[in-house]
Automatic annotation (TrEMBL), chain A:
Pfam families documented for this protein: ETF
Required co-factors: AMP
Residue span(s) of domain Electron transfer flavoprotein alpha/beta-subunit N-terminal: 23-211
Entry's family note: Belongs to the ETF beta-subunit/FixA family.
Keyword field: Electron transport, Transport
Official protein name in the record: Electron transfer flavoprotein subunit beta
Biological role: The electron transfer flavoprotein serves as a specific electron acceptor for other dehydrogenases. It transfers the electrons to the main respiratory chain via ETF-ubiquinone oxidoreductase (ETF dehydrogenase).
UniProtKB/TrEMBL annotation, chain B:
Gene3D superfamilies: HUPs (3.40.50.620), TPP-binding domain (3.40.50.1220)
GO biological process: fatty acid beta-oxidation using acyl-CoA dehydrogenase
GO molecular function: electron transfer activity; flavin adenine dinucleotide binding
Database matches in PROSITE patterns: ETF_ALPHA
Sequence ranges assigned to domain Electron transfer flavoprotein alpha/beta-subunit N-terminal in this UniProt record: 3-183
Cofactor, free-text remark: Binds 1 FAD per dimer.
The family this protein is said to belong to: Belongs to the ETF alpha-subunit/FixB family.
Keywords: Electron transport, FAD, Flavoprotein, Transport
Name of this chain's protein: Electron transfer flavoprotein subunit alpha
InterPro entries tied to this protein: DHS-like_NAD/FAD-binding_dom (IPR029035), ETF_a/b_N (IPR014730), ETF_a/FixB (IPR001308), ETF_alpha_N (IPR033947), ETF_asu_C (IPR014731), ETF_asu_C_CS (IPR018206), Rossmann-like_a/b/a_fold (IPR014729)
Entry superkingdom: Bacteria
Annotated FAD binding sites: 203, 229-230, 243-247, 260-267, 281
Length: 249, 311
């Protein structure tokens, strides 16, 4: 079975982002970039499927600038077999990403696509579901456990208030939630090996997809800033304030 | 044209999330119909019909819709979409699962987690876990959006009741996925996402045993949910499903008590919309105090038992 894993290059989750003063966006100059954390989980899951013999090839794909090669090399160092970069400068909306990925799926014919449930930059949480709709495949979002059979899979999903187990027929789309696994750190030998693994480069035109945006970003604002409150001297003062001033207990 | 609001429910009760999403729909303006999809949903339909400002409640019932699997629910919504220019759902696990599928089938871009309606085509939504706010205008013919319900109040019941109309769902099972079971949390404690009060612990707790011994009693006393910082989760003091932050759950309770949490960016992103934040930390320069309404500089192992005693 072939598994396709789309990965996105995003601002590292430890970075405190800054909104540009002119409101045109978020300042990405000289900011540390990494693989989207949920995509790392997706790569880890795919690699584990290969390691336990359930998958025979893991293909990582990224849609982004030339530097997204680094993100793909990370996926290769974690254990993916080869990579495809679809080069696009500037932001690409989930709908366009899903359309390009649908094209990749038609070329590659995987039986399973594992994606992160959302990217931590645009927080859209759409790509997996959209890809599933475009392919008319089954979908299991927010997966915390994946048990793969020969023509179906049992997926345990994180839902409000607990977990939900569903059975999905293959081919299928699975999106990874935080508890699915703990991604490995790539070892130095594997990082070296990853440099020699194949990486193809394509463009959205190869798939006949326009990346024109449907949503116009009018501006990007700072969120409302919380004012620091007061320090209280003791617990009695705290409980009094919570009861009388804040009225929350 | 009109707005279709996809109801959040468990076939028995209508979730308050729907009443909140309805407030956002009302702000967009237009006739609002609520779609209740499920099985044996009469109580849900009746509760929906009471909400103020609803034109019609549409009820779609079948075995295939009982568990609101994405493939079936999305097909149903798409089949109704011709009568609506806006399709809305609360940004719950269900809404987030189903609506992007609807958007792709309609070839439109979904607007996720709308936190404010600027005008009927322009919306504010959080990006970078709420560290920035994007103002976006849609150019699509049909607007598909999920609503961040912590940003909107719940619509009250009105003085009139909307008519309830059954709709024919035809052969609704796409046969792509099937429901096995729900494994819902069995404890009496409220769920993180909807709790009014959250007591959250950080790395300063020092061990799983101490986390349980100090955080749990206070949470029980307050009827609160328990949360944890990523540092506490990574150190193994608390399970991952308790994680609050950019890589965990984003919460907005009335009261958030941060115990031994320094206030890393990624944690603040998950809780800074809480109404009242209390911080307890030994380090008076900890960043958590910059967002806290009330702070106590002190050892949580002294403060928490005392706080519990005084409640």
């Amino acid at each position: 079975m072939k598994v396709l894993v789309p990965v996105k290059r995003v601002v590292d989750y430890n970075v405190k982002i800054r909104v540009k003063a002119d409101g045109s966006g978020v300042d990405l100059a000289n900011v540390k970039m990494s693989m989207n954390p949920f995509d790392e989980i997706a790569v880890e899951e795919a690699v584990r499927l290969k390691e336990n013999g359930q998958a025979d090839e893991v293909v990582a794909v990224s849609i982004g600038p030339a530097q997204a090669q680094e993100t793909l090399r990370t996926a290769l160092a974690m254990g993916a077999d080869r990579a495809i970069l679809i080069t696009v400068d500037g932001p690409v909306e989930p709908l366009s990403v899903a359309k390009i990925l649908a094209g990749v799926v038609k070329d590659e014919q995987p039986e399973l696509v594992i994606l992160g449930k959302q990217a931590i930059d645009d927080d859209a949480n759409q790509t997996g579901q959209m890809l599933s709709a475009l392919l008319d495949w089954s979908q299991a979002t927010f997966a915390s456990k994946l048990e793969l059979g020969s023509d179906s899979a049992k997926v345990t999903r994180e839902v409000d208030g607990g977990l939900q187990a569903i059975n999905i027929s293959l081919p299928a789309i699975v999106t990874a939630d935080l508890r699915l696994n703990e991604p490995r750190y790539a070892s130095l030998p594997n990082i070296m090996k990853a440099k020699k693994k194949p990486l193809d480069t394509k463009t959205p035109d190869d798939f006949g997809v326009s990346v024109a945006s449907r949503l116009r970003v009018i501006r990007v604002e700072e969120p409302a800033v919380r004012q620091a409150g007061v320090k209280v001297a003791n617990v009695a003062e705290l409980t009094a304030k919570l009861k009388n001033e804040a009225g929350v207990i | 044209m009109a707005i279709l609001l996809f109801a959040e429910h468990d076939n028995i009760a209508l979730s308050e999330q729907t009443a909140k999403a309805l407030s956002a729909a009302a702000k967009i303006g237009g006739d609002i119909d609520i779609l209740v999809a499920g099985k044996d949903v009469s109580t849900v339909a009746e509760a929906s019909a009471k909400l103020s400002g609803v034109r019609t409640v549409l009820v779609a019932q079948s075995d295939a819709l009982e568990n609101q699997l994405a493939e079936n629910a999305a097909s149903l919504i798409v089949s109704l979409s011709g009568d609506y220019d806006t399709i809305v759902a609360a940004a719950t696990a269900n809404g987030k699962n189903i609506l992007p599928r609807v958007a792709a089938l309609l070839d439109v871009m979904q607007i996720s987690e709308v936190m404010d309606v600027v005008d009927p085509d322009t919306f504010k939504r959080p990006i970078y876990a709420g560290n920035a706010v994007e103002v976006v205008q849609t150019t699509d013919a049909t607007k598909v959006m999920t609503i961040r319900t912590s940003s909107f109040g719940a619509t009250e019941d009105g003085s009139t009741t909307a008519p309830i109309k059954s709709i024919d769902v035809g052969a609704a099972d796409a046969g792509k996925s099937s429901f096995i079971e729900n494994i819902l949390s069995q404890n009496d404690r409220p769920e993180l996402g909807s709790a009014k009060i959250i007591v959250s612990g950080g790395r300063a707790l020092g061990s799983e045993e101490k986390f349980k011994a100090v955080i749990t009693p206070l949470a029980d006393k307050l009827g609160a949910a328990v949360g944890a910082s990523r540092a506490a989760v990574d150190a193994g003091y608390a399970p991952n499903d308790l994680q609050v932050g950019q890589t965990g759950k984003v919460v907005a309770p009335d009261l958030y008590i941060a115990c031994g949490i320094s206030g890393a960016i990624q944690h603040l992103a998950g809780m800074k919309d809480s109404k009242i934040i209390v911080a307890i930390n030994t380090d008076e320069d900890a960043p958590i105090f910059q967002v806290a309404d009330y702070g106590i500089v002190g050892d949580l192992f002294d403060v928490l038992p005392e706080l519990e005693g005084q409640l």
